[in-house]
Every structure is written in structure tokens, then in C-alpha cells.
Amino acid sequence: xxxxxxxxxxxxxxxxxxxxxxxxxxxxxxxxxxxxxxxxxxxxxxxxxxxxxxxxxxxxxxxxxxxxxxxxxxxxxxxxxxxxxxxxxxxxxxxxxxxxxxxxxxxxxxxxxxxxxxxxxxxxxxxxxxxxxxxxxxxxxxxxxxxxxxxxxxxxxxxxxxxxxxxxxxxxxxxxxxxxxxxxxxxxxxxxxxxxxxxxxxxxxxxxxxxxxxxxxxxxxxxxxxxxxxxxxxxxxxxxxxxxxxxxxxxxxxxxxxxxxxxxxxxxxxxxxxxxxxxxxxxxxxxxxxxxxxxxxxxxxxxxxxxxxxxxxxxxxxxxxxxxxxxxxxxxxxxxxxxxxxxxxxxxxxxxxxxxxxxxxxxxxxxxxxxxxxxxxxxxxxxxxxxxxxxxxxxxxxxxxxxxx
Length: 405
Description:
Elements: E1 8-9, E2 17-18, H1 29-34, H2 49-68, H3 75-88, E3 96-98, H4 100-111, E4 113-116, E5 119-124, E6 129-135, H5 140-144, E7 151-155, E8 158-159, H6 165-172, E9 179-186, E10 189-196, E11 198-201, E12 206-210, E13 214-218, H7 226-239, E14 244-248, H8 257-267, E15 273-279, E16 284-288, E17 299-303, H9 310-320, E18 325-328, E19 336-342, E20 348-357, E21 373-374, H10 393-404
Parallel strand pairs: 13-14, 14-17, 17-18, 18-21
Antiparallel strand pairs: 1-19, 2-5, 3-20, 4-11, 5-6, 6-7, 7-8, 7-9, 9-10, 12-13, 15-16, 15-20, 19-20
């Protein structure tokens, strides 16, 4: 089995997705080997007693299908469904199968470019709906008035549940200039939006200067090039005289691990441990900084329950080394890393292959990172995805801390 380009990706809070989607899909390389013939392929490969039982069971179902099924049989659809179903049994929300047809879109999403309407989405597991995490600034969705917290209930008249987020995301994407209709539930009202798809550069790194020369930088995921954009934005603010820095990682669901490592490299001392990666055989890889830091000023990181994956890698490293004060609420707790493998037929497998530990060897999976200063938003805030500055007690605390320095 050939491995294609290796990406260490996240994936997120309740699974943050771009409307091109940044999602996490489901499969198994082993299953791919099973189906080479016999309906699912004509001779299923078995390498163990357990595998033989799986093959026998599938063959039984195939014989029943051949005998009784009235409709047309699509062999490719059967194979795809068998692979996806097999690995879904792992019960790992981050291990996902990517069909050959979806691989190009997936790679575009990973690099932060896609054709769509500009929405970050998340699966709200409590109500099994697709929730808008935030519209991308300047995109068709934002311009049309779609808001954080809206639920996407149908795409072009077809209803989708939360667990069908990948299918909905694929449906929303399409050719540039074409239109797509979204039915959105806001409170108790259903709204319909007809949006024109366009090429979107997602996740810009944004920055500004707050009171007393405090720099403020925010971005919502770690896409390809995020670290370089972060560096450029910092240097721009530094050139305008900032003396301290707030990095807002709230609602940042993660992304490419290497981008988080590079940002840590800008801040930590040379040869500092950023994280430990541990595989299933307890083999350990240590990630360390390689350069002298370019950021030497007081830093506050803002976090909340939607701060996940690569964001937690950065937060954990800076906290353990005493390079930043963490303000907000406990992070999501995604302490595992995925890599993307390309199969010979062009399909892919994003598979959980390692867990990571912070520099102090702290495990955070299903635990999260505790802030140094726990600050809740006021009860008047009904949507943590969309907070007015005058209600943002977490940001106010960060400013207060930096003003002491």
C-alpha cells in the first residue's frame, strides 16, 4: 500500500468543517484489501479467522442481495459502503474514509482554498443538526446574512441531519458561479438563502491594535500557510509599536499540526520541546523548536470549549514553558493526531495514528487544557461564536493582565 503526501490534520470541536469542509470522513486500509472481486469483488482476501468471518458474512449478504434485490446493483457503491461501514465500527470520530472523487476537494480544503459559499460548520451532536460555526468574512454566506448558530437543515431541497454533514458539505460545494439553496433554521423560523458559489480563501489571519499598544491576532483554523500569515501579521503590528500580544484561539478547531509547530517556533526558545507524539507501539517522537524566537513580549492566549487539536498543541506548549497566560475556559480536549494516506485507487484514509502530550507530558485527549485564568462569558451572551466586544469578559481580562506588565 502506497502512502501519499502525509498531512497531520485535526479535525475539531464537534468536527469543524469548512463549507468546502474541513471534515473528518471514515475508512480502513485493511478493508480495501478485502474487496478485490466477488460482488464486492469476486475473491475476498482473508488474513485471519476474524477476517474470514467478515468475508463470509458479506458473501452471505451478497447472495441474498443477488437473489432478492429488485433494483440495479452498483458494484462501486457497494464497495464504498462496505469500506465506510467497516471502519465506522472503530467508533473513532476522527478516522475517516475519503472517496477518490472527494480527495481533490479534501486536499483543497486542507490548503484553505475551495469553491463554495464560505461557512465553517460543526455537527451539533445534542440535536443532531448541522450548525454554522461562523460564515467566512466577505463570503456569499456572510453577505446573504447567514449567522453563527444557524442550523442548515436542507441543501437544494434535500434534508440533512448532523451525522450527514459530509454529504451536505459536498452538496454545498460546486462549480464557481453556480447557485445553491440553503434552508436554515434560526430559532423557530426557517429561512431560505440562494447563494452563488465562488472561490474562497478561508481563514485569513486578522489583527489589530487595542488600547495601550496591545496587539490582537485571531484566526479560526490552521490551514496551509497560516503560520507564515501569522508571522506577517505580527511583524505588521510590531512595526506599529505593539508591546504585548493577545492570540485569540477561541472557536479554532485546529488543522495542520505543522502550522501550529511553526507558530510555536516563533515564540519558544530554541531547542524547546513543543510536543511528544506517541504511536500505538509507544514509539515516541519529540517535536522541538529549531530557531531563536522572533516574538519576545508578554502574550495572552484566549481559549474556550471549541479550542481544539492544533490550537491545543500551541496552547499547551506555551503554557508549559511559561510563555503565555491562558485566559478563558477549558479547551475541547482533542489530543490525537491524524495522518492522511492515499490508496492505490486514489481514495484516502484519514486515520488516527498518534496521541500527543504537552511538553510537561500532560495528556489532554478528552480532558482539555485548563486556563491559567478561568473567565466565563456573561449570561447575556447567548452564542459563544458571536460575542460583542462590550460583553467579551475574556478579552477584557486579557487586556487587564497585559496592562499590568
